[in-house]
Amino acid sequence: MTFADLHLDSVLVSTVRNAPVLIFAALAGLFAERSGVIDIGLEGKILASAFVSAAVAFATQNPWYGVAAGMAISVALAMLQAYVAITQKGNQLVGGIAINIAMSGLTFVLAQFFFQQGGRTPDLGQARLFDVVLPGSSAVENIPFIGWLYAHLIGGHSVLVYLAFALVPLVHWVIYHSRFGLRLRACGENPHAADAAGVNVERQRYLAMLVAGVLCSFSGAYLAIVQSGFFLRDMSAGAGYLALTAMVFGNWRPVYTFLGCLMFGFFGAVQIQIEGVELPVVGRIPGSLIQMVPYVVTVVVLAGLMAKSVAPKALGTPFVKSR
Question: Any stretches that span the bilayer, and where are they (predicted)?
């Protein structure tokens, strides 16, 4: 395969398929951090929901039971994280990292205990969520560009892909045009002023973490029962951290965060496409270097944008009610 063999259409379709993992997790982090809670535990919640989703989907042969079970474990971890950060006023970074480390080891141990397949679950087979074929796809498939656009770029994806893209305008409306969003932003910017206005800051932050747990569960479920069809140890491969980077890139705003997720999804698609490609002059690039592409982009983005990004003012600061 040579550089000329790369196809932009394949890269774009792969971008759409890669982005939902980041979109769900980034929007989850957005709710948590807009309320003032640092959610560095996204990675652990993704792994936990991926394992539970795959295990339950395999056991029941019903992918929707897997999605529901993944949601339950992700919400449970989010509530544990909230208890440490909000009620106990604990260090939010340490609590999130603890969840990441614990889930990285625990999911592998449980997968090995239940399935004895080297820390992975069996292939899900018919228990996966399969792609949705839009009406009329076969009729327009042979029409140049329009057939590809309708049948492959817009159509031909799992229902979770459509959910991820539909959530972006919904979350934007909730954050900026709803009473809940107004209180959420107030708690993240000036919790004492919010408290003086009659807002229960701790309750609002718990609600934000609940929403974050639900959204993050879709990321893990998508990984396990849509993209891969099984659970594998540390299969999130840093998706939680990439999602946080996309959120910083988007300045804690839903639409710009979404664009950041698309950017990382695009580079992930390019990484897959250029493996084994013969580049002019350089020749074939080692696979290990190609796998570094999304993470190098992450470092560049953080280095260039961290100084320009403005986080919620009370982010990471436990709220202590004034007397």
Answer: 12-32, 44-61, 67-86, 93-115, 149-175, 206-225, 231-249, 256-274, 289-307
